[in-house]
Design brief:
Layout: H1 8-17, E1 19-21, H2 22-29, H3 33-43, E2 49-50, E3 56-59, H4 60-74, H5 79-93, H6 99-114, H7 118-131, H8 134-151, H9 158-179, E4 186-192, H10 199-209, E5 214-218, H11 228-235, E6 239-243, H12 252-262, E7 267-270, H13 272-277, E8 286-290, H14 293-304
Parallel strand pairs: 4-5, 4-6, 6-7, 7-8
Antiparallel strand pairs: 1-3, 2-3
């Protein structure tokens, strides 16, 4: 490995830890440095360690992941979708086979909802919550059923079933949000972008975006975009996150850039809107967190650490 330009101490440290600078990773994988940085910044696909001076260092596991990414891209998978495939593969590699048990829980949830059985649904929620972490409770069990019912409301009875499940989940999520209101190192305001936004989508994003370091306060659907500077002035959050699972409407990107200049805190974009707007907002004051909750949390931490490029 060519480590020309690095001191002998740094070279020895890299060899001991099997860490490689970006130029060496580019050489052995055939992926240029610009693309590697874009995969990290835009999609969170690779997360190298950083030296004190900010230089990226990649492990052998990172290099293996890069080769897997190339394999999926060669199969025609969009780069924005590769992250979820890799994440699922990592879960399986560690022996966490979720498909069978989550499918079974989903079937039980559907049956309880079909019977409008609140007691059974309540018991199922507690069972799933005891067996899985918070992310999986929603992303692998309850929200897929909620989305399926929302998509099938043309069939007789499904609209009522969806409303029953939606009301149940909103109550459960809201309760957990209330319990999570304790002081954190950082406070984030989460608000929906103008346009379609279902309250449960926002509530679940707020619940899952929170961490031991980051507390989340919600602004509900109907929040006026132009009044956000006033809200931020009074609440003084560390960041303002705007959320939507729909593409940005014409002209909204420019409104966001103007809004960012009038806020007294950083402005960030999350949800599917962030995926579609990434290129258009590159270099602007608006940072994009992505659509997957794990990536949102990671990129939010990076932003507060000054390591996330806008």
């Amino acid at each position: 490995m060519n480590k020309q330009g690095l001191s002998s101490d740094i070279q020895a440290s890299l060899q001991e830890q099997d860490l490689f600078p970006i130029r060496e990773v580019s050489r052995v994988t055939g992926v240029n440095a610009v693309t590697l940085r874009a995969w990290e910044r835009r999609y969170g696909l690779i997360q190298p360690t950083r030296t004190d001076s900010g230089h990226r260092l990649y492990s052998q596991a990172d290099i293996d992941d890069i080769r897997r990414i190339l394999g999926w891209l060669e199969r025609g998978v969009a780069v924005s979708k590769v992250g979820s495939i890799l994440a699922r593969g990592q879960k399986l590699a560690h022996g966490v086979v979720l498909a069978d048990c989550t499918a079974g829980w989903q079937a039980q949830v559907r049956e309880a909802v079909h019977r409008f059985d609140a007691v059974a649904l309540d018991s199922l929620f507690d069972q799933v919550f005891a067996a899985l972490n918070l992310d999986l409770v929603f992303t692998e069990v309850f929200m897929p059923v909620w989305h399926d019912l929302a998509a099938g409301q043309g069939a007789f009875g499904l609209a009522s079933e969806w409303l029953f499940l939606d009301q149940f989940l909103r109550g459960r999520v809201f309760t957990r949000l209330q319990l999570a209101r304790v002081p954190r190192s950082h406070t984030v305001l989460l608000a929906p972008l103008p346009g379609p936004c279902l309250e449960l989508d926002l509530l679940v994003t707020g619940l899952l975006l929170a961490s031991d370091e980051v507390g989340v306060q919600l602004l509900m659907p109907g929040q006026v975009l132009d009044e956000l500077p006033l809200v931020c002035e009074r609440l003084r959050p560390d960041a303002m996150v705007l959320f939507s699972n729909h593409p940005l409407s014409d002209g909204l990107g420019k409104r966001l850039m103007r809004l960012a200049t009038g806020l007294q805190c950083p402005l960030l974009l999350a949800g599917e809107a962030a995926e579609g707007a990434q290129d258009g907002l590159a270099g602007s004051p608006v940072a994009c967190l992505g659509a997957e909750i794990e990536r949102m949390r990671r990129r939010l931490r990076q932003y507060f650490a000054g390591q996330l490029d806008t």
